[in-house]
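Please check both lines for our workbook:

___
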Amino acid sequence: MSVELCEMALQQTQALLRLTETTMQEICCRKFSGSELYAEALRRVLGGKGKRGAACILISFQERHNGVMRGRVFHLVADQLVEGSEEVVIPTGSGYGADLAFAEEQQEVMAVNWDERSASVESYQNVFPSAVRSIVGGAIRNFVTCRISGEQPGVITAFNFLGSATEYDASVLHGLAVVIGSLVTLSGEMRETEKAFIYTIEALARACEAAEEHTGTHILRVNRYAGALAANLGLPAHFVESISYSAQMHDVGKIKIPVTILLKEGPLDAAEMELMRMHPVFGERILGDSPRLEVAREIAIAHHENWDGSGYPYGLKGEQIPLAGRIVKIADVYDALRSTRSYKGAYSHAETVRVFRDGDERVRPADHFDPTLLATFFRIEHIFAGIYESLKID
């Protein structure tokens, strides 16, 4: 390999390693899909800064017991990564499939040019399944293929480099395979951790169910309402996802309220009401100071605060109230109005919307709710109705 190609290989490998490092720094705070993980690394290699970019890249994984490899193809169009819409199925018994199966079992990178396998470019096309030929577009002149190691072993193949496939192309593709394998493995481990984390939150939220009938479906609905509001406000996806499972923690502090108070029929006396109004504080203490529980903690402490400062426990006003708390307040009030309580029957959706518009003896919309959130509620109130119907108790 020439000195110039060595330098190019080093530069692209270093760029891929920097991408891996950046992603690893962020991965504890974000959750990635496979395409998100692949996107930037694939874009860089396909682009090649106009020097050595491949025409397309196939990422495939072998089904051990079915004799096929399944994968998807990525192209670069106007500097944008485009994923092939159809899954490519490659029989491992075909000539090209055997190459892929071999590469999946080896550590080496294979760089193959047409003149090493066939008498002509035309006859070389017979090596490849028709599905592969169709997605590459035009005659296949060369390819480089390499094993993807990690949690989900597979093969990455880049087609049609300029001129011939070289050691430089092989070194860059090997770097890409290492990046994809490591990021997919990390993401898989994070997903398992995330599942355990959300399960723990759900278990804690369900701890109130034994005391208050139907609390289980109430917290599920509040999760969904809050997620819908956040999404329709245009908030970041990670916030929408977080509030969609954290909203159920709004009443976790009720664990410390005596059952006799929680289930009391009729109004609470002054001492009982004072203790009940402590449940946001209890919830905040229970959730502690973990950064992962920040949204849940904000919800627990703030979902009874009012926009005009008349709420509790701290009498916060306007944007002093955490956004997550303001969102869940609307979600919680909507579901409370739709549900039977000791002091009222269940309202219909139309009656509930009327209360949100005109108020009643307990709810003063202009004083209690963030006006932007209230306007969003009216815009998507049909979504709230659908959520309630899908998760109601018969």
Observations:
- Confidence is low (pLDDT under 50) at residues 27-33.
- The first helix runs from residue 3 to 26.
- The first strand starts at residue 56 and ends at 63.
